[in-house]
Amino acid sequence: MATGLRFAAIARVTDARWITCSVADHLGFGLLPGSELVVETTLCHEVRQADVEIVFNDARAPGPYKGHPTAQMYGFRSYLSIPIHWPDGRFFGTLCALDPNPQTLDDPRVLAMTRMFARMIGETLQLDTRLQNAEEELAQEREIADVQEQFMAILAHDLRNPITAVRAGLRMLKRQEADPRKLALIDLMDGSGQRMADLVSNLMDHARNRLGGGIVLDRRSDRPLTEALDQIVAEFRAVAPSSEIVVTFELPPNLDCDRARIAQLLSNLLGNAITHGTPDRPIHVSAKVTKGTFALAVLNEGAPIPESKLSGLFSPFQKGDERPNGSGLGLGLYIASEIAKAHGGRMLVASTDANTVFTFEMPACH
User: Fold this and answer.
1) Helix boundaries (H) for the chain
2) Which residues lie below 8 Å from residue 318, measured CB to CB, with a gap of 6+?
3) Mean pLDDT across the chain, nearest whole number?
4) What is the DSSP string of 267-292?
Protein backbone atom coordinates (compact mmCIF):
# COMPACT_ATOMS: atom_id res chain seq x y z
CA MET A 1 0.00 0.00 0.00
CA ALA A 2 1.26 3.51 -0.80
CA THR A 3 1.09 4.42 2.92
CA GLY A 4 3.82 1.92 3.74
CA LEU A 5 1.42 -0.21 5.74
CA ARG A 6 1.91 -3.90 5.00
CA PHE A 7 -1.60 -5.11 5.70
CA ALA A 8 -4.77 -3.61 4.22
CA ALA A 9 -8.33 -4.85 3.93
CA ILE A 10 -11.75 -3.83 2.78
CA ALA A 11 -14.08 -5.03 5.51
CA ARG A 12 -17.84 -5.35 5.72
CA VAL A 13 -18.73 -4.14 9.20
CA THR A 14 -22.10 -4.52 10.90
CA ASP A 15 -23.14 -4.38 14.53
CA ALA A 16 -22.52 -8.14 14.76
CA ARG A 17 -19.87 -9.07 12.22
CA TRP A 18 -16.50 -8.03 10.74
CA ILE A 19 -15.82 -9.82 7.42
CA THR A 20 -13.01 -9.27 4.93
CA CYS A 21 -14.07 -8.59 1.34
CA SER A 22 -10.57 -8.05 -0.07
CA VAL A 23 -7.12 -8.36 1.48
CA ALA A 24 -3.55 -7.24 0.70
CA ASP A 25 -1.42 -9.08 3.25
CA HIS A 26 2.38 -8.70 3.22
CA LEU A 27 2.70 -9.55 6.88
CA GLY A 28 1.35 -13.08 6.91
CA PHE A 29 -1.46 -11.83 9.12
CA GLY A 30 -3.52 -14.84 8.07
CA LEU A 31 -6.73 -13.23 6.88
CA LEU A 32 -8.30 -14.12 3.54
CA PRO A 33 -11.43 -12.84 1.76
CA GLY A 34 -14.35 -14.13 3.81
CA SER A 35 -12.36 -14.33 7.07
CA GLU A 36 -14.00 -12.96 10.19
CA LEU A 37 -12.86 -11.33 13.40
CA VAL A 38 -14.93 -10.71 16.51
CA VAL A 39 -16.28 -7.30 15.64
CA GLU A 40 -15.96 -5.94 19.20
CA THR A 41 -12.19 -6.60 19.13
CA THR A 42 -11.68 -4.33 16.11
CA LEU A 43 -11.24 -0.59 15.84
CA CYS A 44 -13.55 -0.74 12.81
CA HIS A 45 -16.35 -1.36 15.32
CA GLU A 46 -15.65 2.07 16.80
CA VAL A 47 -15.47 3.59 13.30
CA ARG A 48 -18.94 2.21 12.58
CA GLN A 49 -20.46 3.34 15.84
CA ALA A 50 -19.24 6.93 15.50
CA ASP A 51 -18.94 6.99 11.68
CA VAL A 52 -15.54 8.67 11.97
CA GLU A 53 -12.02 7.94 10.81
CA ILE A 54 -9.43 6.46 13.14
CA VAL A 55 -5.82 7.26 12.24
CA PHE A 56 -2.68 7.09 14.39
CA ASN A 57 1.01 6.85 13.60
CA ASP A 58 2.15 4.94 16.68
CA ALA A 59 0.10 3.21 19.37
CA ARG A 60 3.00 3.68 21.78
CA ALA A 61 3.15 7.47 21.33
CA PRO A 62 1.09 9.84 23.49
CA GLY A 63 -2.49 10.20 22.28
CA PRO A 64 -6.00 8.71 22.63
CA TYR A 65 -4.90 5.31 21.26
CA LYS A 66 -1.73 4.89 23.31
CA GLY A 67 -1.74 1.37 24.70
CA HIS A 68 -5.08 0.55 23.05
CA PRO A 69 -6.02 -3.12 23.74
CA THR A 70 -6.81 -3.80 20.07
CA ALA A 71 -3.34 -2.66 18.99
CA GLN A 72 -1.79 -4.86 21.68
CA MET A 73 -3.99 -7.85 20.79
CA TYR A 74 -3.14 -7.81 17.07
CA GLY A 75 0.42 -6.50 17.44
CA PHE A 76 0.32 -3.30 15.38
CA ARG A 77 1.57 0.21 16.08
CA SER A 78 0.38 2.29 13.07
CA TYR A 79 -3.23 2.10 11.91
CA LEU A 80 -5.90 3.80 9.83
CA SER A 81 -9.55 3.01 9.18
CA ILE A 82 -11.67 5.05 6.76
CA PRO A 83 -15.46 4.57 6.59
CA ILE A 84 -16.92 3.26 3.31
CA HIS A 85 -20.45 4.33 2.49
CA TRP A 86 -22.95 3.29 -0.14
CA PRO A 87 -23.71 6.13 -2.59
CA ASP A 88 -26.96 6.77 -0.66
CA GLY A 89 -24.97 7.39 2.55
CA ARG A 90 -25.54 4.07 4.34
CA PHE A 91 -22.53 2.66 6.17
CA PHE A 92 -20.95 -0.38 4.47
CA GLY A 93 -17.65 -0.98 6.20
CA THR A 94 -14.08 0.27 6.28
CA LEU A 95 -10.87 0.55 4.37
CA CYS A 96 -8.43 -0.37 7.13
CA ALA A 97 -4.67 -0.86 7.19
CA LEU A 98 -2.01 -1.52 9.82
CA ASP A 99 1.64 -2.25 10.39
CA PRO A 100 3.82 -3.43 13.33
CA ASN A 101 6.07 -0.43 12.73
CA PRO A 102 5.15 3.23 13.18
CA GLN A 103 4.26 5.15 10.00
CA THR A 104 3.37 8.75 9.22
CA LEU A 105 -0.32 8.46 8.39
CA ASP A 106 -1.69 11.85 9.42
CA ASP A 107 -0.10 13.50 6.39
CA PRO A 108 -2.91 15.33 4.48
CA ARG A 109 -1.81 13.75 1.19
CA VAL A 110 -1.98 10.24 2.65
CA LEU A 111 -5.41 10.91 4.13
CA ALA A 112 -6.72 12.44 0.91
CA MET A 113 -5.57 9.39 -1.06
CA THR A 114 -7.16 6.85 1.31
CA ARG A 115 -10.40 8.83 1.46
CA MET A 116 -10.51 8.86 -2.33
CA PHE A 117 -10.02 5.07 -2.38
CA ALA A 118 -12.86 4.66 0.12
CA ARG A 119 -15.20 6.78 -2.05
CA MET A 120 -14.27 4.80 -5.16
CA ILE A 121 -14.97 1.54 -3.32
CA GLY A 122 -18.40 2.84 -2.27
CA GLU A 123 -19.25 3.78 -5.86
CA THR A 124 -18.07 0.37 -7.06
CA LEU A 125 -20.35 -1.33 -4.53
CA GLN A 126 -23.36 0.20 -6.22
CA LEU A 127 -22.20 -1.09 -9.62
CA ASP A 128 -21.63 -4.56 -8.16
CA THR A 129 -25.09 -4.52 -6.62
CA ARG A 130 -26.68 -3.51 -9.90
CA LEU A 131 -24.75 -6.25 -11.70
CA GLN A 132 -25.84 -8.83 -9.12
CA ASN A 133 -29.46 -7.70 -9.45
CA ALA A 134 -29.21 -7.90 -13.23
CA GLU A 135 -27.78 -11.42 -13.02
CA GLU A 136 -30.57 -12.49 -10.67
CA GLU A 137 -33.19 -11.01 -13.00
CA LEU A 138 -31.56 -12.78 -15.95
CA ALA A 139 -31.60 -16.09 -14.08
CA GLN A 140 -35.30 -15.59 -13.29
CA GLU A 141 -36.04 -14.77 -16.93
CA ARG A 142 -34.22 -17.91 -18.03
CA GLU A 143 -36.20 -19.99 -15.55
CA ILE A 144 -39.46 -18.49 -16.80
CA ALA A 145 -38.38 -19.14 -20.41
CA ASP A 146 -37.60 -22.78 -19.59
CA VAL A 147 -41.03 -23.22 -18.01
CA GLN A 148 -42.66 -21.62 -21.04
CA GLU A 149 -40.75 -23.90 -23.41
CA GLN A 150 -41.77 -26.96 -21.41
CA PHE A 151 -45.38 -25.79 -21.41
CA MET A 152 -45.20 -25.26 -25.16
CA ALA A 153 -43.82 -28.75 -25.71
CA ILE A 154 -46.53 -30.35 -23.54
CA LEU A 155 -49.30 -28.30 -25.16
CA ALA A 156 -48.13 -29.15 -28.68
CA HIS A 157 -47.83 -32.84 -27.81
CA ASP A 158 -51.32 -32.97 -26.30
CA LEU A 159 -52.88 -31.17 -29.28
CA ARG A 160 -51.69 -33.74 -31.80
CA ASN A 161 -54.16 -36.47 -30.87
CA PRO A 162 -57.38 -34.41 -31.06
CA ILE A 163 -56.28 -32.85 -34.37
CA THR A 164 -55.53 -36.29 -35.78
CA ALA A 165 -58.93 -37.53 -34.60
CA VAL A 166 -60.74 -34.57 -36.20
CA ARG A 167 -59.00 -35.10 -39.53
CA ALA A 168 -59.70 -38.83 -39.46
CA GLY A 169 -63.39 -38.08 -38.88
CA LEU A 170 -63.41 -35.65 -41.79
CA ARG A 171 -61.92 -38.28 -44.08
CA MET A 172 -64.63 -40.73 -43.03
CA LEU A 173 -67.33 -38.14 -43.75
CA LYS A 174 -65.80 -37.43 -47.15
CA ARG A 175 -66.06 -41.08 -48.16
CA GLN A 176 -69.75 -41.12 -47.24
CA GLU A 177 -70.70 -37.76 -48.75
CA ALA A 178 -71.80 -37.10 -52.35
CA ASP A 179 -73.00 -33.49 -52.18
CA PRO A 180 -70.30 -31.33 -53.89
CA ARG A 181 -70.96 -28.38 -51.59
CA LYS A 182 -70.54 -30.50 -48.48
CA LEU A 183 -67.42 -32.11 -49.93
CA ALA A 184 -65.94 -28.67 -50.56
CA LEU A 185 -66.72 -27.71 -46.96
CA ILE A 186 -65.09 -30.91 -45.69
CA ASP A 187 -61.99 -30.17 -47.78
CA LEU A 188 -61.86 -26.65 -46.34
CA MET A 189 -62.14 -28.00 -42.78
CA ASP A 190 -59.50 -30.63 -43.47
CA GLY A 191 -57.21 -27.94 -44.85
CA SER A 192 -57.61 -26.01 -41.60
CA GLY A 193 -56.85 -29.21 -39.71
CA GLN A 194 -53.68 -29.68 -41.74
CA ARG A 195 -52.71 -26.11 -40.97
CA MET A 196 -53.18 -26.76 -37.23
CA ALA A 197 -51.17 -29.97 -37.50
CA ASP A 198 -48.33 -28.05 -39.18
CA LEU A 199 -48.37 -25.40 -36.44
CA VAL A 200 -48.25 -28.08 -33.74
CA SER A 201 -45.38 -29.83 -35.52
CA ASN A 202 -43.45 -26.55 -35.71
CA LEU A 203 -44.15 -25.82 -32.04
CA MET A 204 -42.85 -29.23 -31.00
CA ASP A 205 -39.70 -28.86 -33.08
CA HIS A 206 -39.07 -25.39 -31.66
CA ALA A 207 -39.60 -26.57 -28.08
CA ARG A 208 -37.35 -29.60 -28.65
CA ASN A 209 -34.67 -27.34 -30.07
CA ARG A 210 -34.87 -24.93 -27.12
CA LEU A 211 -34.84 -27.73 -24.56
CA GLY A 212 -31.65 -29.16 -26.02
CA GLY A 213 -32.95 -32.02 -28.16
CA GLY A 214 -32.28 -30.36 -31.49
CA ILE A 215 -33.71 -31.43 -34.83
CA VAL A 216 -33.41 -35.22 -35.00
CA LEU A 217 -32.65 -36.70 -38.43
CA ASP A 218 -33.21 -40.16 -39.85
CA ARG A 219 -30.99 -39.97 -42.93
CA ARG A 220 -31.48 -42.71 -45.50
CA SER A 221 -30.88 -43.12 -49.21
CA ASP A 222 -32.91 -46.26 -49.95
CA ARG A 223 -36.03 -44.42 -51.20
CA PRO A 224 -36.32 -41.50 -53.63
CA LEU A 225 -36.94 -38.07 -52.16
CA THR A 226 -39.17 -37.15 -55.11
CA GLU A 227 -42.03 -39.25 -53.75
CA ALA A 228 -42.08 -37.35 -50.45
CA LEU A 229 -41.94 -33.98 -52.21
CA ASP A 230 -44.73 -34.98 -54.63
CA GLN A 231 -46.89 -35.94 -51.64
CA ILE A 232 -46.49 -32.47 -50.09
CA VAL A 233 -47.36 -30.75 -53.35
CA ALA A 234 -50.43 -33.00 -53.76
CA GLU A 235 -51.65 -32.12 -50.28
CA PHE A 236 -51.35 -28.38 -50.94
CA ARG A 237 -53.10 -28.71 -54.28
CA ALA A 238 -55.96 -30.40 -52.46
CA VAL A 239 -56.30 -27.87 -49.63
CA ALA A 240 -55.53 -24.79 -51.80
CA PRO A 241 -57.03 -25.63 -55.22
CA SER A 242 -57.01 -21.98 -56.30
CA SER A 243 -53.20 -21.85 -56.07
CA GLU A 244 -51.28 -23.03 -59.14
CA ILE A 245 -48.16 -24.97 -58.18
CA VAL A 246 -45.63 -25.64 -60.96
CA VAL A 247 -43.16 -28.42 -60.12
CA THR A 248 -39.74 -29.31 -61.56
CA PHE A 249 -37.97 -32.19 -59.81
CA GLU A 250 -34.74 -33.59 -61.22
CA LEU A 251 -33.32 -35.76 -58.47
CA PRO A 252 -31.25 -38.94 -58.22
CA PRO A 253 -33.07 -41.94 -56.75
CA ASN A 254 -30.76 -42.34 -53.77
CA LEU A 255 -30.12 -38.93 -52.21
CA ASP A 256 -28.89 -39.25 -48.59
CA CYS A 257 -31.26 -37.20 -46.42
CA ASP A 258 -34.15 -37.36 -43.98
CA ARG A 259 -37.07 -37.56 -46.41
CA ALA A 260 -39.69 -36.65 -43.80
CA ARG A 261 -37.74 -33.58 -42.63
CA ILE A 262 -37.10 -32.35 -46.18
CA ALA A 263 -40.80 -32.82 -46.88
CA GLN A 264 -41.58 -30.79 -43.73
CA LEU A 265 -39.20 -28.07 -44.93
CA LEU A 266 -40.98 -27.95 -48.31
CA SER A 267 -44.35 -27.86 -46.55
CA ASN A 268 -43.28 -24.83 -44.52
CA LEU A 269 -41.92 -23.02 -47.58
CA LEU A 270 -44.93 -23.85 -49.71
CA GLY A 271 -47.36 -22.77 -46.99
CA ASN A 272 -45.44 -19.51 -46.70
CA ALA A 273 -45.61 -18.96 -50.48
CA ILE A 274 -49.36 -19.61 -50.61
CA THR A 275 -49.97 -17.26 -47.66
CA HIS A 276 -47.85 -14.38 -48.90
CA GLY A 277 -47.77 -14.79 -52.68
CA THR A 278 -50.04 -13.16 -55.23
CA PRO A 279 -53.13 -15.45 -55.31
CA ASP A 280 -53.57 -15.60 -59.11
CA ARG A 281 -49.88 -16.12 -59.92
CA PRO A 282 -48.20 -19.55 -60.01
CA ILE A 283 -45.82 -20.84 -57.37
CA HIS A 284 -42.74 -22.59 -58.74
CA VAL A 285 -41.16 -25.48 -56.81
CA SER A 286 -37.88 -26.98 -58.02
CA ALA A 287 -35.44 -29.55 -56.69
CA LYS A 288 -32.22 -30.66 -58.33
CA VAL A 289 -28.62 -31.65 -57.76
CA THR A 290 -25.95 -29.57 -59.46
CA LYS A 291 -22.18 -29.98 -59.00
CA GLY A 292 -22.56 -31.87 -55.76
CA THR A 293 -25.14 -29.51 -54.24
CA PHE A 294 -28.78 -30.32 -53.63
CA ALA A 295 -31.06 -27.30 -54.01
CA LEU A 296 -34.77 -27.06 -53.21
CA ALA A 297 -36.37 -23.74 -54.15
CA VAL A 298 -39.85 -22.24 -53.78
CA LEU A 299 -40.65 -19.08 -55.75
CA ASN A 300 -43.73 -16.92 -55.45
CA GLU A 301 -44.67 -13.56 -56.90
CA GLY A 302 -45.93 -10.73 -54.74
CA ALA A 303 -44.81 -7.82 -52.61
CA PRO A 304 -41.13 -8.06 -51.62
CA ILE A 305 -40.08 -8.78 -48.06
CA PRO A 306 -38.94 -5.50 -46.43
CA GLU A 307 -35.17 -5.19 -46.20
CA SER A 308 -35.44 -4.63 -42.45
CA LYS A 309 -37.07 -8.05 -42.03
CA LEU A 310 -34.61 -10.15 -44.02
CA SER A 311 -31.88 -10.45 -41.37
CA GLY A 312 -34.24 -11.95 -38.77
CA LEU A 313 -36.43 -13.94 -41.11
CA PHE A 314 -35.19 -17.35 -39.91
CA SER A 315 -35.44 -16.47 -36.22
CA PRO A 316 -38.31 -17.91 -34.17
CA PHE A 317 -41.55 -15.93 -34.00
CA GLN A 318 -40.44 -13.58 -36.76
CA LYS A 319 -42.53 -12.75 -39.82
CA GLY A 320 -41.53 -11.21 -43.09
CA ASP A 321 -44.99 -9.84 -43.81
CA GLU A 322 -47.04 -7.44 -41.73
CA ARG A 323 -50.23 -7.73 -43.77
CA PRO A 324 -53.38 -9.08 -42.10
CA ASN A 325 -53.07 -12.39 -43.94
CA GLY A 326 -49.63 -12.93 -42.44
CA SER A 327 -51.07 -15.50 -40.03
CA GLY A 328 -49.19 -18.13 -38.07
CA LEU A 329 -46.65 -18.17 -35.28
CA GLY A 330 -43.63 -17.20 -37.32
CA LEU A 331 -42.00 -20.60 -36.73
CA GLY A 332 -42.20 -22.13 -40.22
CA LEU A 333 -39.11 -20.49 -41.68
CA TYR A 334 -37.20 -20.98 -38.43
CA ILE A 335 -37.92 -24.73 -38.45
CA ALA A 336 -36.97 -24.90 -42.13
CA SER A 337 -33.66 -23.24 -41.28
CA GLU A 338 -33.04 -25.68 -38.41
CA ILE A 339 -33.73 -28.65 -40.69
CA ALA A 340 -31.29 -27.19 -43.20
CA LYS A 341 -28.60 -26.80 -40.53
CA ALA A 342 -29.15 -30.34 -39.29
CA HIS A 343 -28.42 -31.55 -42.84
CA GLY A 344 -25.23 -29.49 -42.95
CA GLY A 345 -26.89 -27.02 -45.29
CA ARG A 346 -28.41 -23.54 -45.19
CA MET A 347 -31.47 -21.50 -46.10
CA LEU A 348 -31.21 -18.58 -48.51
CA VAL A 349 -33.74 -15.93 -49.43
CA ALA A 350 -33.87 -13.41 -52.27
CA SER A 351 -36.77 -10.97 -52.49
CA THR A 352 -37.35 -8.37 -55.21
CA ASP A 353 -40.31 -6.55 -56.71
CA ALA A 354 -40.60 -9.42 -59.21
CA ASN A 355 -40.61 -12.41 -56.84
CA THR A 356 -39.40 -13.99 -53.61
CA VAL A 357 -37.35 -17.20 -53.63
CA PHE A 358 -36.49 -19.38 -50.65
CA THR A 359 -33.74 -21.92 -51.36
CA PHE A 360 -32.46 -24.79 -49.27
CA GLU A 361 -28.96 -25.95 -50.17
CA MET A 362 -26.94 -28.86 -48.81
CA PRO A 363 -24.08 -31.11 -49.95
CA ALA A 364 -25.50 -33.95 -52.05
CA CYS A 365 -24.39 -37.43 -50.94
CA HIS A 366 -25.78 -40.42 -52.82
Assistant:
1) 43-50, 69-74, 108-176, 180-210, 225-239, 259-276, 307-310, 332-342
2) 309, 312, 330, 333, 334
3) 85
4) HHHHHHHHHHS-TTS-EEEEEEEETT
CATH number assigned to the domain covering 225-363: 3.30.565.10
Q: Where in the chain is the domain with CATH 3.30.565.10?
A: 225-363
Q: Please report which helix (H) or strand (E) contains residue 99, including its range.
A: strand 91-99
Q: What is the C-alpha separation between 23 and 25, in angstroms, rounded?
A: 6
DSSP 44-88: HHHHHHHT--EEES-TTSSSTTTT-HHHHHHT-SEEEEEEEE-TT
Element (H, E) at 358: strand 356-363
Q: How much is the pTM?
A: 0.51
pLDDT band at 363 (very low <50, low <70, confident <90, very high): very high
Strand order in the sheet with 346-351: 245-250, 283-290, 293-300, 356-363, 346-351
pLDDT in tens, 170-228: 888 888 888 888 888 887 787 777 767 777 776 777 666 665 556 778 888 888 999 98
pLDDT in tens, 15-36: 999 999 999 999 888 899 999 9
| Backbone region of residue 90 per phi and psi (left: phi > 0; alpha: psi in -120 to 50; beta: other values) | beta
Is 326's pLDDT higher than 50? no
Query: CATH 1.10.287.130 region(s) of the chain?
Result: 139-210
Summarised one tens digit per residue, pLDDT across range 250-263 is 999 889 998 888 98
By C-alpha distance, which of 202, 191, 355, 193 is closest to 265? 202
**CATH class of the domain defined by 7-106:** alpha beta
Q: How far is CA 143 from CA 137, 139, 212, 305, 349, in A?
A: 10, 6, 15, 35, 34
Q: Is 249 exposed, middle or buried (0-12, 13-18, 19+ CB in 10 A)?
A: middle
